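Predict structure. Chain length: 200.
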Amino acid sequence: MAASAGPEIERLIGLLAKLPGLGPRSARRSALALLKRRDQLLLPLADALADAAARVRTCQVCGALDTQNPCAICSDRGRDGALICVVEEVGALWAMERASAFRGRYHVLGGLLSALDGVGPDALRIGPLVARAAVEDVHEVILALPATVDGQTTAHYLADRLAAANVSVTMLARGVPVGGELDWLDDGTIAQAMRARRPA
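Prediction complete.
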């Protein structure tokens, strides 16, 4: 950045560059766009950030983000308390909700087990999950974790830990996506789809 930019602008660029998907160049462009449209973008964004910082909390039950605790999903009596869907992070929970395919409750782990990154079971919200699953009215725990090495490792570990809870432990099906063509899919996806086939 040019020396004439000033420390305030450089601080803004530095903070924007820490966001996922934004490098130094994208951060400079974003900062410039915000500063050029101060009334339409910068000031409303600053208000929204301050409001979120003051009001958004982590749900003590499931780990989701909300302005109330327990969160709106945990507080919703219309949700099926017998089903718990385990996700890696809040973004995955939001994706599940966008699909409107699940009406149970969630549990956010806060990451995945990863020997390379030094993330062990104590770093995740596994203990609270096992405690929730042991409650009498929980019948099924759905593991909606990524189809990665860390995701599969975490799923196997959770299945072992949940074995004593006397609940059904299932995983999301993997395979050919809706609208997908076989020519464009990788070998692992095709192999998984073949293993997970079902009656037509």
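Summary: The chain has a mean pLDDT of 91.
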